[in-house]
Specification:
alpha/beta; elongated; 269 residues; four-stranded parallel β-sheet
Length: 269
């Protein structure tokens, strides 16, 4: 009977493809490979399910889906169709060995764990880019960490740094007298971190930013009174959310990151 290996991802899937081939090569068995990539909505996912159902044989799915509803639908589909699902964030080679009844040609657990860690990092970086600076509030629902703060309070650099470690980070700008997204109030507030900074340091950073793009620095954006109002407004939002506040004035990215990670790890204990 034929063996089919499927790659399902809401990204380009290249890292998962590399992982699946690396793993399947250990079993010295022929298989047919199919990829369903850049899955952006439920309809596309259902089309993939229909295609998979039409194949006859043993089936293994390697997946990585950020959307919880899509991931849940995939799990239900796999259970109903008796398909082996390999979530690339929770993979163990023993599952495939048990499913196929074949012992791997050699032990590559260490190598494969490194590949998985690399995949998690790449996916987290993609996530941070996609949901940077409030581009899409849907990211709040699926993030490991949510950063909020006024403009130039180190949200993006900190997001990218945390993503390089493997955390999915969404960052949301707080704009004076603007409503914050309701999604912030629907998630565990322990995942939310408010970034604050000394007003004079923030003014300096903003002036340097405007200078770098050849814009005059005598704008409201750099006005100290306006900055004070922004920071006070942001603190009120953070108070309403009852989230941890991180003063980044004298902290390096690494120091701020360590504080955030230590708090996130305590949630999972």
């Amino acid at each position: 009977m034929d063996l089919f290996v499927y790659i399902i991802s809401d990204a380009d899937g290249m890292d998962i493809l590399h992982l699946s081939r690396n793993i399947m090569d250990r079993f010295e068995i022929k298989y047919k490979e199919k990829s369903f990539l850049n899955i952006s909505n439920y309809e596309i996912l259902c089309k993939a399910f229909a295609d998979i159902k039409n194949d006859c044989g043993y089936k293994i799915i390697f997946s990585s889906l950020n959307h919880p509803n899509h991931d849940s639908a995939l799990r239900n589909f796999g259970q109903k169709e008796k398909i082996l699902l390999i979530d690339c964030t929770n993979y163990t080679i023993s599952k495939i060995s048990e499913y196929l009844g074949i012992i791997p040609s050699d032990d590559k657990e260490v190598e494969n764990s490194k590949i998985i860690h690399h995949i998690k990092r790449m996916e987290a970086i993609d996530f941070a880019i996609k949901y940077d600076d409030g581009q899409d509030f849907n990211g709040i629902k699926y993030c490991d960490i949510c950063l909020i703060g006024v403009s130039r309070s180190s949200k993006t650099p900190l997001s990218v740094y945390l993503a390089s470690i493997g955390y999915k980070v969404s960052n949301i700008p707080i704009l004076l007298q603007s409503r914050v997204p309701s999604e912030l109030f629907s998630i565990d507030n322990r995942k939310i971190f408010g970034l604050t900074i000394d007003k004079h340091r923030l003014q300096q950073i903003r002036e340097e930013r405007l200078k770098s793009i050849n814009l005059p620095k005598d704008s409201k954006y750099c006005d100290i009174k306006y900055i004070e109002e922004e920071l006070d407004f942001a603190k009120e939002i953070m108070k309403d959310l009852d989230c941890k506040i991180v003063d980044v004035t004298n902290k390096s990215i690494e120091e701020a990151s360590d504080f955030i990670i230590s708090n996130i790890e305590n949630i999972n204990k």
